[in-house]
Write a structure and sequence with these properties.
370 residues, globular, 32% helix, alpha/beta
Length: 370
């Protein structure tokens, strides 16, 4: 017997007509109340409460913690460092699109034509849901302190990598978010110097110094996080902060955790990712070259361990860059496991010198986008 036939054979006998009439009389007031809550007559609209997502809908399956948030090495990167955290469940239940696109390491051609950035963002923002807004992840906008500087009218988003209490919220930071057509952990804990100075503190302090310098040159500055004692935002939200603010440029600050013999800074830009970076990849590449050259002029050494010592690296696996929808760069400001780099990154004077070099780099990068 088929399942349909079995269902028919088990159908209950009809109720007496009198009982049906009584049930109808009881149900009519309830139906009237339901219709009253459905909006204007004939609209068929649901009550607003029915459209509100429940808590937890933005979350997803856990992923493995990574050593360096969203700057964790891609398939061909040589900058892998020791993991800052080994906790967290395996990501065996992740989406089938978990594998990121292949990574390339090439020097961009200034002649490469760019396309409309807004079109790229329109596709990117609709592909997969964005991650949740998280504690410490509220962007802050700081107005310029000069209206006549070389960056007047420009909006720069500074992303200080990681956050102070991420290690205490492993279940939250292991949520998977859309990193550009594939899923990746929301956030990671970052690395540290051998003496224990953490990457999140370095990026936060350097970002504040850089913001002050850029504002003095006329730029409006948006920081992707508002403090160093939270655990967000997720990597997609960091990038989307640039998209939502129509940024001239996003610069994401990090410190690397490579082997101790390696030293120097390098600049990463997003390679082509269909639906996400077709419009932003080429201008980001030009900006990367300009920022690298400006930092070299400021006395900084390109990384000895990335892409033949060029200090340039194109990657397609970084959610912050992929989701920006605007020209976007990530700067690994130095190797925190190297004694010389760590000494500079740990000292206030070293971070001020670095911020000055980055400010010169941003100015050059913005000029390269014209």
């Amino acid at each position: 017997m088929s399942q349909r036939d079995a269902a028919v054979s088990q159908r209950p006998a009809p109720r007496p007509a009198g009982r049906v009439r009584r049930l109808a009389l009881v149900a009519l007031p309830a139906v009237a109340l339901l219709l009253a809550g459905c909006g204007p007559a004939g609209s068929g609209a649901l009550p607003s409460a029915a459209l509100t997502p429940t808590a937890g809908q933005a979350g997803s399956s856990p992923a493995l913690p990574l050593a360096a948030q969203d700057s964790s090495p891609g398939p061909t990167s040589a900058s892998a460092g020791p993991a800052a955290s080994s906790a967290g469940p395996a990501a065996s239940s992740a989406s089938p699109t978990m594998t990121p696109p292949p990574t390339r390491s090439v020097t961009p051609s200034p002649a490469t034509a760019s396309r409309a950035v807004t079109a790229s963002h329109a596709v990117a923002s609709s592909a997969l849901p964005a991650g949740p807004a998280l504690p410490g992840g509220t962007p802050t906008t700081e107005p310029p302190t000069s209206k006549t500087g070389p960056l007047a009218g420009k909006l720069i988003v500074i992303d200080p990598g990681h956050n102070g209490t991420a290690a205490e919220h492993l279940s939250e930071i292991n949520q998977l978010v859309n990193a550009g057509g594939f899923m990746k952990a929301c956030q990671t804990t970052g690395t540290a110097t051998n003496a224990g100075y953490p990457e999140h503190a370095f990026t936060w302090d350097t970002a504040l110094r850089l913001a002050a310098l850029l504002r003095s040159q006329g730029a409006t500055v948006v920081l992707t996080r508002s403090n160093d004692d939270g655990w967000g935002p997720c990597i997609d939200q960091r990038g989307l902060t640039a998209a939502r603010n129509h940024a001239t440029l996003l610069i994401s600050l990090h410190g690397d955790g490579a082997p101790g013999s390696a030293h120097g800074f390098h600049v990463i830009w997003p390679g082509p990712v269909p639906g996400y970076t077709e419009a932003s990849s080429a201008p980001s590449g030009r900006a990367a070259v300009a920022l690298r050259d400006a930092m070299v002029r400021s006395g900084f050494t390109p990384a000895t361990y990335v892409n033949g010592g060029t200090g340039l690296n194109e990657r397609t696996d970084l959610g912050t860059l992929n989701r920006a929808g605007t020209p976007a760069l990530m700067v690994e400001c130095g190797n925190m496991r190297n004694a010389g780099d760590a000494a500079m990154m740990s000292s206030p004077s070293g971070r001020q010198h670095l911020a000055t070099g980055l400010a010169a780099g941003v100015l050059a990068a913005v000029a390269a986008l014209r």
